[in-house]
Amino acid sequence: MHAALWTLLTLTYGAAHAPMAAWHPSPWPPGKLPLVVISHGAGGSERGHHDTAEYLAAHGYVVVAPRHVGDNVEDHSAQGTPRMWRDRPLQLRAAIDAALADPALGSHIDRARIGAFGYSAGGYTVLVAAGAVADLQRPQHHCRAHRDDAFCREIHDGDSLVDTPEPIVHARDRRIRAVVVAAPVGALFDDVALADVTIPIRLYRAGADELLTQPYHAERVHEHLRRAHEYVVVPGAGHYAFLAPFPPELKQKIGSPAEDPPGFDRAAFHSRLNAELLAFFAKSLSGS
């Protein structure tokens, strides 16, 4: 573990020149390092999982986290629309391209050891990058049949996914060799959508998820993944449990993303979560 835990750079990626945060060990250790790219949830930011990024960087990883264009804390223009679901995996690809091309990072990255972590809409994003096929028609049909799913409140009534052209999203990035999926949006995947996901997967479900009602999301992904995978249900965790803990003075200002169900200790959970992610990526990106 490095004495200087991390250095933060700000990069741009893609045609929109959106910001992307990058962490790496400081000083650089010898040899090539694995890369992990992080996809934040709907309306989030590149700093939403900073503790996980810092932890991985402290243990010898390069970590990059793009701010998703049209679906972030400052820009909601694509949120809940077909553009959001189509563009997110492409933006993840562009972030990897930017990291590999960056003069400060690229020469240190082992291109054969690239992983991804995604939370909520980011969980959807990394699953598509891993080979899942999304159907933009499914959410409207799903929400007509399952009005108990809180996710359906996020679908824009004026943006019909049923009538959108090119409703099928294929965006596999074969450079990605392993993914961690936390509290994913699963309603865009039908029964065979996950058949071509063949890389190692670690899947987390928040046991008390109030936004993505089960069994329609993480549980659905678990049931339909054909590859053997690691599946973890986190008892008592609300949907936002995977976000980095907020300082006490900010919790009231932030509101629900900073809150947890009674009795759930987010800080203690993240101590375990970050160690588990490190162990998973170390095993899955070992190159053996």
Tell me what you see in this structure.
The model is unreliable at 156-162 (pLDDT under 50). The chain has an 8-stranded mixed beta sheet with strand order 1-2-4-3-5-8-9-10, with helices on both faces. Strands 6-7 form a two-stranded antiparallel ribbon. The chain has one domain: Rossmann fold (3-Layer(aba) Sandwich). The two termini are 22 Å apart. The longest helix has 20 residues, at 82-101. By secondary structure, the chain is an alpha/beta fold. 27% of the residues lie in helices and 22% in strands. Strand 9, helix 5 (218-224) and strand 10 (230-234) form a beta-alpha-beta unit.
Quick tags:
alpha/beta, single chain, Rossmann fold, 27% helix, 7 helices, eight-stranded mixed beta sheet, 288 residues, two-stranded antiparallel ribbon
Work out the helix count.
7
* CATH homology superfamily: Alpha/Beta hydrolase fold, catalytic domain
User: Could you tell me the strand content as a percent range?
Assistant: 15-25%
The first-to-last residue Cα distance is 22 Å
What would you call the structural class? alpha/beta
Order of helices and strands: EEEHEHEHEHEEEHEHH
CATH class: Alpha Beta
Indicate the CATH topology. Rossmann fold
Topology:
Blueprint: E1 4-13, E2 18-26, E3 33-39, H1 50-58, E4 62-66, H2 82-101, E5 109-119, H3 121-129, E6 134-135, H4 138-145, E7 168-169, E8 176-182, E9 201-206, H5 218-224, E10 230-234, H6 248-254, H7 266-284
Parallel strand pairs: 3-4, 3-5, 5-8, 8-9, 9-10
Antiparallel strand pairs: 1-2, 2-4, 6-7
